[in-house]
Amino acid sequence: MIIAESVQGQLNIIGVGSDRSRGMNRGIVVDIDQVATSIQNAVHQAEQKANVSITNVYAGIPADMLSIEPCQGMIAVSDESKEITDQDVQNVAAAALIRNLPPEREIVDLVPDEFIVDGFDGIKDPRGMIGVRLEMHGIVFTSPKTVIHNIKKSIAKAGLNLKNLVVNPLALGKVALTDGEQDFGTILIDLGGGQSTAAVIHDHKLKFTQVDQEGGEYITKDISIVLNTSFENAEKLKRDYGDADVQAASDDEEFPVDIVGQNDSVMVSEKYLAEIIEARLEQILTRLGKSLAAVNAFDLPGGVVLTGGVTALPNIAKFAAELYHRGVKIYIPDQMGLRHPSFSQAFGLVTYVSQLSEVDVLVHSPISSASADYSQTMAQANAAKTTSYQTVAQPQQTVVEDQDPTPKTPQPEPKPKPEKKKKKRSEGFKRFLNNFFE
């Protein structure tokens, strides 16, 4: 939870709160009550630091089974003077949202690309102009109703009013990528605790997303199983001694590990711990890399940007660069109190919302109205008994049709790593997976 204020275009962070994501599994809400409690705890911390009371919030929605589609709408200008007003912008956005959606899907967001007034295109804000016909071209994002409902219900149960949902990769790209990287095209990978998300941003638009249902928690579970230690202790070992690259870890440096069922600790080397971490990390990045290669994302000049809590592991950029054979860098927020990659997504959300223009707000208003009605209904029913909804999302890739200018011919997968390093990684990888994992 981040509370910020915008003063003369400058965004100031005035409150930050965090709590363990209870009730979440692989980035999806599986227990509404627990998630609501976690939200309340994080909000309470942020309110105390900012010395303000929070009622209205914006929230991010993960890219699980996200659909990205182009859309367009057209209306006749309603005013007698033929001057385009706020209402006309809202009406043309509503016209663009008229579509036959499957019953299990719901519209999350609408991002305008351009407006066309009487055939003149490339217009960003048509208000005040004279015209007879107004058109809008944009991109609409849809997601499963179950995912959206569970997020909204959790926020309402926490006593908050949801203003809007924002697609996570769309917001993250605004802070993690430079203007040039968003323009020329860059791969953005968010290695979170519950899941990992790869996104391709080109021409300042979100073109492709791919979700892998494994994240930092899986690395922690691996450490816990292999070393026969508790999950809490495994998480501490990962943070204090973990390394993403076996070649960079030391075989001489050792640390004690508390073993379940034993009184005495066991000494483990940093290299042994790195082998456990690298095995799972290589799995995640390899799967994401195959999906990215299938849409020729590695042809884009922006390279790869990593963020998310897992990127706090030392040498992870070096490891990913060797795996993808591309330039890799890490994004960490530089604001006071947020200087850790785990805050990247929340900082992206508050920055994205603060930069919304009046036209963006007007275009989103048809969706906002539906969200406001939902929040009001949930607030009235807050005292009633609620039921937890469970959803298990499968990996899903999404791409905008006819939007990506890159060639459609298949691209070879990234070249294999040098044989010497690949052999060392493969031996450690196979040994752990054969012994401990299906």
The helicity comes to: 25-40%
Find the structural class using helix and strand composition: alpha+beta
* CATH homologous group name of the domain at 178-330 and 408-438: ATPase, nucleotide binding domain
Strand percentage, roughly?
15-25%
Task: Report on this structure.
By secondary structure, this protein is α+β, with helices and mostly antiparallel strands. Among the domains are: 67-144, Dna Ligase, domain 1 (2-Layer Sandwich); 178-330 and 408-438, Nucleotidyltransferase, domain 5. It is built from 12 helices and 18 strands. The chain has helices at 32-50, 86-96, 145-157, 168-176, 179-184, 216-227, 231-241, 270-294, 316-324, 344-354, 358-380, 419-436, and strands at 2-7, 10-16, 24-25, 28-29, 56-61, 67-76, 105-117, 120-123, 133-144, 161-167, 186-191, 196-202, 205-212, 254-257, 266-269, 304-307, 328-330, 397-399. The strands form 6 sheets. It has a 6-stranded mixed beta sheet with strand order 17-16-11-12-13-18, sandwiched between helices. Strands 6-9-7-8 form a 4-stranded antiparallel beta sheet. β14 and β15 (266-269) form a beta hairpin. It is globular, with a radius of gyration of 23 Å. Residues 383-412 and 415-424 have low confidence and may be disordered.
